[in-house]
Each structure stands twice: as structure tokens, then as C-alpha cells.
Design a protein that fits this description.
alpha+beta; about 15% strand
Length: about 120
């Protein structure tokens, strides 16, 4: 999938990436949905999936939601945590997606920042 099909203005993409780097720099993040499939309308939301192995904490999810809601983006951003999605939804996401952020690294102590230690999805 090429970025030419990603229906988002460069300045909006830069803002999305800034917010992602602030809260989840260690994870790959992919866009999917109408903005990737060429079906977006002017105010269609942006669907993002954060590629986690374990669920993100409620604090991290809330901080992301707050930053996106308070940003100057002209549309809503929906965040999906890969670790909490089922196989059917994963297949839908994998069908059409565009990489928005490449994760940087793991935290030095071996634990990934922002993970929920509970074994059940949020």
C-alpha cells in the first residue's frame, strides 16, 4: 500500500505522529479504514492500530484519546490496541493498512512502557 492512497494532509500526519511519539514511541502504528481505502469523506475519522503484544494501560489510552481530542485535527482519531483485538478484526486491519509510525525500541529493563500487567484485555 502506498502513501499516495493515505487520505490525510501532511500537516495533519505530522501532528498525529507527534502525539504518537509522545505516548507510544516504542510501537509500530498503522492506519486502516476509510482513509487508507480511498473511501474517506471530509470529516471521516482516522483509524489507528497500535501494534502491542499486551494491552496498553488505561492511562496511556486515555492520554492518547485526550491529546487527539484536544488537537487541531479536523476529525476524530480512533485508537485500537492490537493486543485486545480478535482474529476477525485483525484480518480486516491487515487487509489495507499504511504504516504511520515505526516503533523505536523496548525500555531497557525489558518491560515495555505503557503495558497493562493484567492478563485480561481492557
Amino acid at each position: 500500500m502506498s502513501e499516495q492512497r493515505f487520505d490525510i494532509q501532511p500537516e495533519h500526519l505530522a501532528l498525529v505522529r507527534t502525539i504518537l511519539r509522545r505516548h507510544v514511541p516504542q510501537y509500530d502504528v498503522w492506519a486502516f479504514g476509510s482513509r487508507v481505502q480511498g473511501r474517506a469523506k471530509v470529516h471521516s475519522d482516522l483509524d489507528l492500530v497500535i501494534m502491542t503484544d499486551r494491552p496498553l494501560t488505561l492511562d496511556v489510552m486515555a492520554a492518547l484519546a485526550d491529546d487527539f481530542a484536544e488537537s487541531d485535527l479536523p476529525w476524530k482519531v480512533d485508537i485500537v490496541d492490537w493486543a485486545t483485538t480478535d482474529a476477525v478484526f485483525r484480518t480486516i486491519i491487515e487487509h489495507d493498512r499504511i504504516l504511520v509510525q515505526t516503533g523505536t525500541a523496548h525500555v531497557p529493563n525489558g518491560e515495555e512502557a505503557g503495558h497493562n500487567s493484567a492478563s485480561t484485555p481492557l
